[in-house]
């Protein structure tokens, strides 16, 4: 079991590749009850809203960032604060990579600060974020 | 609900998520500015195991507790608290035309980001009460054109008033 003493500034969270498909985006938008056409209607998306392709949901990328933290942390602690910002739109067909890095550790509070990111395969940060976790011990 | 009279901690928790804002560019109508501070009626949400499982599959969660629906992933709230409106109240873009979305000169809406503080885990059977407030509107000049930022604060509690989560959501209109 990981304790706060095992967490070091500079440690990196495991990276994960995400390749959303029409089917996975449909399921996501159905699950969150989102009918915005830029996530499933290619003609509308390119012709009316002038995107180059179907848009990958920003909040889905936010979810990937929480997973980067929680899958690393497991049941050794809690995610207590989280934020992300969709800086660049991502499109169907792109492969995206999520990950993170420990930026600060506060042993007295059993807390750590983590910077998280979704980046393109070329390394461009699409969705940066920040998480605070509290360890159980 | 007595807790609704308590002072929210959201304002002191809030932080701009859109970076530096520009001077008044005249994009935001007075009527829209007048909506700042308006809230939707409290939304009561019963959390079901099936909805948790659907969300967990759709987001390709890896932890068994999420895939089995024993606990909701943190961002489950984002979908669970979306307003349910009839089809004829959806705009031509598919977005609900009601619910604190002011009429603006720009029309294309995108998610901007969220900032959330979590106070407890969410389990199937929980009953949540959420209050959503349009807390700010501001404008910026982006590299590809003008942008309007809509900032919402969402206070999520149990029916007895215990805090579950506080969230600041930003929508970008371009």
Write a structural description.
The complex is a heterodimer of chains A (137) and B (174). By secondary structure, chain A is α+β, with helices and mostly antiparallel strands. Chain A has a domain at 4-19 and 58-135: Hotdog Thioesterase (Thiol Ester Dehydrase, Chain A). Chain A is 23% helix and 35% strand. Chain A has helices at 22-31, 42-47, 58-73, and strands at 12-18, 77-85, 96-106, 111-120, 125-135. Chain A has a five-stranded antiparallel beta sheet, covered by helices on one side. In chain A, strand 4 (111-120) and strand 5 form a beta hairpin. The model of chain A has no long low-confidence stretch (mean pLDDT 96). Chain B has one domain: Hotdog Thioesterase (Thiol Ester Dehydrase, Chain A). With 174 residues, chain B is α+β, with helices and mostly antiparallel strands. Chain B has a five-stranded antiparallel beta sheet, with no helix packed on it. In chain B, 16% of the residues lie in helices and 32% in strands. The radius of gyration of chain B is 17 Å and the shape is elongated. Residues 1-19 of chain B have low confidence and may be disordered. Classes of the chains: A alpha+beta (137), B alpha+beta (174). Chain A binds chain B through residues 18, 24, 27-28, 30-38, 41, 44, 48-49, 55, 57-60, 62-64, 66-67, 70-71, 74, 78-86, 89, 127, 129, and chain B through 17-18, 51, 54-55, 57-63, 73-75, 78-79, 82, 84, 90, 93-95, 108-118, 121, 170, 172. Strand 2 (77-85) of chain A pairs antiparallel with strand 2 of chain B.
Which short descriptors sum up this protein?
heterodimer; A: 137 residues; alpha+beta; Thiol Ester Dehydrase, Chain A; five-stranded antiparallel β-sheet; 3 helices; 23% helix; 35% strand; elongated; B: 174 residues; 5 strands
Quick overview of this protein structure:
The complex is a heterodimer of chains A (137) and B (174). With 137 residues, chain A is of the alpha+beta class. Chain A is built from 3 helices and 5 strands, in the order E-H-H-H-E-E-E-E.
């Amino acid at each position: 079991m990981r304790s706060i003493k095992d967490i070091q500034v500079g440690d990196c969270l495991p990276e994960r590749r995400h390749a959303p498909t029409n089917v996975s985006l449909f399921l996501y938008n159905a699950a969150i009850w989102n009918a915005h056409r830029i996530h499933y209607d290619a003609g509308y998306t390119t012709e009316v809203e002038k995107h180059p392709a179907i848009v990958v949901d920003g909040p889905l990328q936010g979810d990937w960032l929480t997973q980067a933290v929680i899958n690393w942390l497991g049941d050794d602690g809690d995610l207590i604060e989280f934020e992300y910002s969709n800086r660049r739109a991502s499109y169907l067909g792109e492969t995206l990579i999520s990950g993170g890095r420990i930026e600060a550790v506060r042993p007295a509070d059993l807390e750590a600060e983590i910077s998280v990111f979704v980046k393109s395969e070329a390394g461009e940060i699409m969705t940066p974020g920040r998480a605070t976790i509290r360890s159980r011990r | 609900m007595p807790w609704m009279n308590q002072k929210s901690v959201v304002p002191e928790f809030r932080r701009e998520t859109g970076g530096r804002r520009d001077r008044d560019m005249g994009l935001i109508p007075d009527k829209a500015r007048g909506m700042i501070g308006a809230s939707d009626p409290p939304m009561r949400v019963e959390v079901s195991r099936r909805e948790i499982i659907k969300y967990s599959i759709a987001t390709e969660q890896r932890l068994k507790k999420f895939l089995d629906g024993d606990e909701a992933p943190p961002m489950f709230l984002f979908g669970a608290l979306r307003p349910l409106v009839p089809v004829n109240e959806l705009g031509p873009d598919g977005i609900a035309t009601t619910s604190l979305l002011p009429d603006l000169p720009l029309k294309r809406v995108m998610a901007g980001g969220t900032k959330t503080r979590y106070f407890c885990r969410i389990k199937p059977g929980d009953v949540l009460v959420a209050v959503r407030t349009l807390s700010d509107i501001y404008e910026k000049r982006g590299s590809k054109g003008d942008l309007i930022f809509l900032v919402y604060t969402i206070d999520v509690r149990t029916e007895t008033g215990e805090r579950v989560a506080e969230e600041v959501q930003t929508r970008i209109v371009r």
